[in-house]
Design goal:
By secondary structure, the protein is mostly helical. The chain is 58% helix and 4% strand. It has two domains: 84 residues, Orthogonal Bundle (DNA polymerase, domain 1); 178 residues, hpI Integrase, Chain A. Strand 1 and strand 2 form a beta hairpin. The longest helix has 20 residues.
């Protein structure tokens, strides 16, 4: 079965163009699935039945969240479709298995005041602080994912016209406007701080660690956690929180859902619609505060 798994993961990388992180998630889910089947003595895909898949999913209950179980089922369904496509099996036992019902989770967002505090947190008198300020301004201005920020190249930005080009999930390319403040602090970083971080080394990446090494997404994660603590923000904040805040603040100020979808790089507008729930919650709060008969 491991041979089929390796072939499937190669298919995801080469033909589907998925990122290393996405392929790793599929590998993790399917390795657990195949180990479960192996414990049952199943080594041939044609011997897998619907009950085997249901039993595997049931075994995950209590250990994983409903969202993680749904993701595991999605990986299994995709794997079995691949096996049929390659004519390795003649039937798909996962075909009629329903996904567990997921409650709509509204993402955490920062208020405009909290964002302002966060953006002021880096120490501009240090090389690393100039870089961190540029990253935070960029993330809030564009809604980029942390992996997209870490992978940005010098050739991807045009500070003269104020746009950047980035590759999102499945290598989907999009153009995103930067905004005045992001341009200002990116320019300062590139002119003052980046040459000092680069030294005598050569790198095409925009954001660098000391010695010219590419800045990893984990490093960006840790930096944001430090800045959140320094800003005195008590919410649970991740790099994705800035992405959520970017989308929410645009919608609150009248941007269309289609525009936000384009800026975020969502393939389906259904993914973007989660932000309409945040927007409605905001409107309800405004109504409660200011309507004379709301209290």
């Amino acid at each position: 079965m491991d041979i089929y798994l390796d072939a499937y993961l190669d298919y995801l990388k080469v033909e589907k163009g998925l990122s290393i992180n996405s392929v790793s998630s599929y590998r993790q889910d399917l390795s657990k699935y195949l180990s479960f089947l192996e414990a049952r003595g199943i080594a041939n895909p044609n011997r897998i039945g619907r009950k085997d898949i249901n039993d595997f999913l049931y075994s995950l209950r209590g250990r994983l969240s409903v969202t993680s179980i749904a993701r595991a089922l999605s990986s299994i369904k995709s794997f079995h479709k691949f096996l049929m496509r390659e004519k390795i099996t003649s039937q798909d036992p996962s075909n009629l298995i329903d996904y567990p019902k997921l409650g709509k989770k509204i993402p955490d967002v920062l208020s405009c005041e909290e964002v302002t505090r966060l953006l002021k947190a880096p120490n501009y008198h240090r090389v690393g602080g100039i870089r961190d300020k540029a990253i935070l301004e960029l993330m809030y201005a564009t809604g980029l994912r942390v992996s997209e920020v870490a992978n940005l190249k010098m050739a991807d930005i045009n500070l003269e016209i104020g746009f950047l080009k980035c590759k999102g999930k499945a290598s989907k390319e999009r153009i995103v406007p930067l905004g005045r403040m992001a341009v200002k602090f990116l320019k300062r970083y590139i002119e003052e701080a980046r040459p000092k971080l680069l030294g005598r080394n050569v790198s095409s990446n925009i954001f660098l660690a000391q010695g010219g090494r590419s800045l990893s997404r984990q490093s960006v994660w840790k930096m944001i956690k430090r800045m959140v603590k320094k800003a005195g923000i008590r919410k649970k904040v991740s790099p994705h929180t800035l992405r959520h805040s970017f989308a929410t603040h645009l919608l609150e100020r009248g941007a269309s859902l289609r525009s936000v979808q384009e800026l975020l790089g969502h393939t389906s507008i259904t993914t973007t619609q989660i932000y309409t729930h945040i927007n409605k919650a905001h409107l309800k709060e405004i109504h409660s505060l200011y309507h004379p008969r709301a209290k």
